[in-house]
Each structure stands twice: as C-alpha cells, then as structure tokens.
Amino acid sequence: MKHLLTLLLVGVLAACGGSSSPLSISFSPASLSLAMQVGQSANTGFSFTNTSKQSLSYTLGVPSTVDWLQVSSGASGMVNANATQAVMLSVTCPAAPSNLSTKLSVKAGGLSKDLALSLSCTTNPPPPSTITSVSVTPNSAMLNAGQILSLTALVQGSGTFDPSVTWASSAACKASVDANGTVTGISGGGVTLTITATSKADPSKSAAVTLTINGPVSVPIGPGGGC
Length: 227
Description:
Elements: H1 2-15, E1 25-28, E2 32-37, E3 41-50, E4 56-61, E5 69-73, E6 76-79, E7 84-92, E8 98-108, E9 111-122, E10 130-137, E11 140-144, E12 148-150, E13 152-158, E14 165-169, E15 175-177, E16 182-185, E17 191-199, E18 206-214
Parallel strand pairs: 2-9, 11-18
Antiparallel strand pairs: 1-3, 3-7, 4-6, 4-8, 5-7, 8-9, 10-13, 12-16, 14-17, 15-16, 17-18
C-alpha cells in the first residue's frame, strides 16, 4: 500500500508540472564573452534551438539591475520544435573600467535556461574582431509568387564587430530580397533558387537559404525572355 501511494504521488506531481527537468533548448554560442572600450556601444547576438518535440512560447529575461545590456530583437515569441530563434543584443560599456557579468534567461512553460554573458570594459584598444560564422533563419523555405518572407541573419564572432549583412538573390526575377532580408516571390513554376546573406565585416563568411517559389510563371516582355 505504501508503494502504491508513492506511485500515485509521483503521478500527481508529474501531472501538475512538478518535474524539475531543464528546458530543452541549446544555445549557440554556449556563452558570450565581450571585450570593449569604456563608453563604446556594440551589437551582438546569439541563437537558441528548441530541441523539444513541441512548440514553445518563450520570453527572454534580463535582470532589472543590468543597465548596460538591452535586447534589440527576439525578446519573446514562439519557436517550433527543432527550430532556431535568433536574439540580437545591444551592449554599452560603463564610464569606468570594469568586468561585468550576467545571465540571460530563456523562459518557457514555467521553466528557464540561462546563457552566461561577460563584458570586459577597458581603456585599452579591444582585441581584433573575428567573424566565425553567418546563419540565416529559416535555412529553407517555400512560398508562392506574390508572397513575402522575412529572413533573419545572425553573424557570430569574437571581439567587437559589425553584425550586419548584405542580401542577394541568385535569380532576382524569380524572387527579390531587400536590405532588411525581406523576400518577395515574383515568378513561380516550382523554381528553386538561393538567397545569400554575406557578412559586411568579413565578406568571406556567408550563409544561403534554399527557396522554392510556387505559382504561375511570369515571363518578362522583351529580349531575353527572363532569367
């Protein structure tokens, strides 16, 4: 009887959300470490992947006592299972040399997981910046002619760097992309093309999205007949 009561109690706790298992997400990079000059501001970012089997509605928590860090985009939203969410941050070094640290908490379903962030503010020139990778969310997509799709690029590296990218379409007459990563489907027919985001700080680093455009085929009038 005692064993039966124990099993019943465990079942009730599980049904009420009493599990203490961690939130099933992974961070990229696993932590953030920045070095900047006093008074300098910079943008940086990270991404996290929902490794659970269901969609998550999340919020990003920043301690109220941290006044040198702000979330520029990706502060809250919905992340599908196995999908990746990019988060952009704005960081400003205080007026005096200091070593600062905090934790950013991704919270979902009453659970949370922390990302450690450290900031070294000095009066010495910061170390040279290095771009390590560029990623784009989503990394593949399908849309109809006439529809639009917003892409998000995340540039990762060390030091202080420009996180912006340039966008390009491999077939601009089939799908165009503007400076903000907004793609517009123009001509369909099941054509497949690529949209590329290239780091402005290091043009050797880029990422491509495979894009399929469905719908009617539009044939431009004039010599050449299209691309």
